[in-house]
Specification:
- By secondary structure, the chain is mainly beta.
- Helices cover 8% and strands 24% of the residues.
- It has a single domain, classed as Mannose-Binding Protein A, Chain A.
- Strands 3-4-5-9 form a four-stranded antiparallel beta sheet, with no helix packed on it. Strands 6-7-8 form a three-stranded antiparallel beta sheet. It has a two-stranded antiparallel sheet with strand order 1-2.
- A hairpin with a 6-residue loop joins strand 6 and strand 7.
- The protein is globular, with a radius of gyration of 16 Å.
- It starts with 8 loop residues before the first strand and ends with a strand.
Length: 181
């Protein structure tokens, strides 16, 4: 369905529901359970190069071994234990001014980065809870503006594993990241 050669996010609008797909390399979904007798589920494809792999740095951060991104381990550390930011703009500002574990180059992740740590198996929150502690089973802001309507931004729902968009005035959680391009 997605036939672009670049790593672009493509939105398909079907009866008001947003579906997203990527072209290029996708991380493994983390599904290890087979739900049918039919071959072809994510469970059947477990290439080591795309499997989720994390390192606990021992300082409250987690490194994604596939992407090299460093994540804040604690899901409710930001904003002194308050997980909501008030607005998208406040989330951006908070992450850009965040200092933790000796690093001051934290930022709000883009939609591809945050979506890359979603684990599509088990119960909510859909994330590896061994590494990512106290993740709220809700939605987390990304730095990605929803281009068709620029007063909205993309978010990742760890309550559903889905990517959506909403008005930038909403109050959502943040998980700061550092590294990348």
């Amino acid at each position: 369905m997605c036939e672009t050669k670049n790593l672009l996010l493509i939105a398909l609008f079907i009866t008001g529901i947003s579906s997203f797909c990527y072209s290029g390399e996708l991380p493994d979904t983390g599904q290890t359970t087979s739900y049918t007798e039919t071959y072809g589920e994510d469970h059947d494809y477990q290439p080591a190069a795309s499997s989720m792999s994390y390192t606990d740095n021992g300082n409250g951060t987690i490194t994604d071994n596939r992407t090299g991104l460093m994540w804040l381990q604690e899901g409710n550390y930001a904003f002194n234990g308050q997980t909501s930011t008030g607005t998208w703009e406040q989330a951006l500002g908070y992450c850009e001014n965040f200092t933790y574990a000796g690093y001051s180059d934290w930022r709000l992740p883009n939609v591809r980065e945050l979506d890359s740590i979603v684990k599509f198996e088990g119960a909510a929150p859909f994330i590896n809870t061994t590494y990512f502690l106290n993740t709220v089973s809700g939605v987390y802001w990304t730095s990605t503006t929803y281009v068709p309507i620029t007063t909205r931004a993309m978010y990742v729902g760890f309550d559903s594993g889905c990517v959506y968009y909403d008005n930038k005035t909403g109050a959502y959680c943040v998980r700061p990241v550092r590294g990348g391009p």
